[in-house]
TrEMBL record:
The keyword Transcription does not apply. It comes from Prevotella lacticifex. Residues 20-163 form the Phosphoribosyltransferase domain. Its EC number is 2.4.2.8. GO terms for molecular function: hypoxanthine phosphoribosyltransferase activity; magnesium ion binding; nucleotide binding. Belongs to the purine/pyrimidine phosphoribosyltransferase family. It is found in: Cytoplasm. It holds the Pfam family Pribosyltran. Keywords: Cytoplasm, Glycosyltransferase, Magnesium, Metal-binding, Nucleotide-binding, Purine salvage, Transferase. Its cofactor is Mg(2+). It catalyses: IMP + diphosphate = hypoxanthine + 5-phospho-alpha-D-ribose 1-diphosphate; GMP + diphosphate = guanine + 5-phospho-alpha-D-ribose 1-diphosphate. Pathway: Purine metabolism; IMP biosynthesis via salvage pathway; IMP from hypoxanthine: step 1/1. This is Hypoxanthine phosphoribosyltransferase.
Length: 179
């Protein structure tokens, strides 16, 4: 168990890199078999999902594309409940199989907004793929088809996820230590 300090908070390892990779590969394997013969567009939600999206995509052995969107809903360690679109969709999604790639579904508000926005592009199908879900916090009904891991309701950083923009480069996932 190793500890890191970011600004005013201490974190300790909760999901080691090897475990993350095993789970990401398992999700990728399911996508490989479900999307045989199709060419899905991975739609990575910036910033948090960029590390997951890169690893996920490299475990895919089907033809696939990637595109990016950027929404903002979080400041510090608690959700503001507000979602803003900062970078919009720049790929034609009409008639495409779209897989939204998220770092974490917490309350589900961001994802619900995303689904509403993306349906307007008339994709052939729309699927959710997330690295993490906090089932206890989910307040919105969502059909999360691809989820690598479920975690308790604690604030985490690493593997793309930040605490005030720091910690995204950590290879393991760390949980905040309450003092
Ligand atoms: P939601 O709208 O589902 O409540 O929030 C989703 C967003 O909040 C995620 O995409 C992520 O950016 C952020 N978030 C939720 N929980 C955590 C967490 O434990 N750690 C970090 N770093 N971000 C989180
Ligand atoms: Mg996110
Ligand atoms: Mg964040």
């Amino acid at each position: 168990m190793s500890r890191v300090t970011i600004k005013d908070k201490t974190f300790e390892t909760s999901i080691p890199e090897a475990e993350i990779q095993k789970r990401v590969k398992a999700v990728a394997d399911r996508i490989n078999s479900d999307f045989q013969g199709r060419v899905p567009v991975l739609l990575s939600v910036l910033n948090g999902s960029f590390v997951f999206a890169a690893d996920l995509m490299r475990y895919l052995n089907i033809e696939c594309e990637i595109s990016f969107v950027k929404m903002a809903s979080y400041e510090g360690t608690s959700s503001t409940g507000k979602v803003r679109k900062l970078i919009g969709v720049n790929t034609d999604l009409k008639g495409r199989d779209v897989i939204i790639v998220e770092d974490i579904v917490d309350t589900g508000v961001t994802m619900k907004n995303m689904l509403g926005m993306l349906k307007e592009y008339e994709p052939a199908s729309l699927h959710i793929c997330t690295l993490l879900v906090k089932p206890e916090k989910l307040t919105v009904p969502l059909n999360i088809e691809y989820c690598a891991m479920e975690i308790p309701n604690d604030f985490i950083v690493g593997y793309g996820l930040d605490y005030d923009q720091l910690g995204r480069n950590l290879r393991d996932i760390y949980t905040v230590v309450e003092d």
